[in-house]
Write a structure and sequence with these properties.
elongated; two-stranded antiparallel sheet; mainly alpha; about 110 residues
Length: about 110
Amino acid sequence: MVCGMGTRVKARINQPQRRRHFIKEWRKHRKMTQEQLAERIGVAVSTISQLETMKQGYSQPTLEAIADVLDCEPADLLMRKPGGDGPVWTIIESLDAPARQQIAEIAKTFKRD
C-alpha cells in the first residue's frame, strides 16, 4: 500500500489474538526446562518456546498433555498462576493426590443444591 509523497505504509494483516496463559509459569513452578517438557509431551523444544511466547497457539490435546505432565488441570494453565490465587491453592498444590481428593469430598459438603 502506498500513501502520498512516496511513503510506503505496511498493510496490517489481522492475526488471531492469542489468549493469555500460564504455561511457562506452571513449567517453572514444576522446576522443568522447556526441553524436559517438550520431551515428555513429544514435541519440539521450539514448539514449547513458541507456545510460551504466544507466537503459536495451542490445541486442546496439547494443552491437556501439558497439564498432565505439569500435574494440573488444563483450566489452570489458562486461568491462574501456580500458587498465586491465595493460600488455599498453595496448600492444595502441596498435597498428594489422596489428600486432594479428600479435600474435594469435604468441599462438596458445602455445595448447596
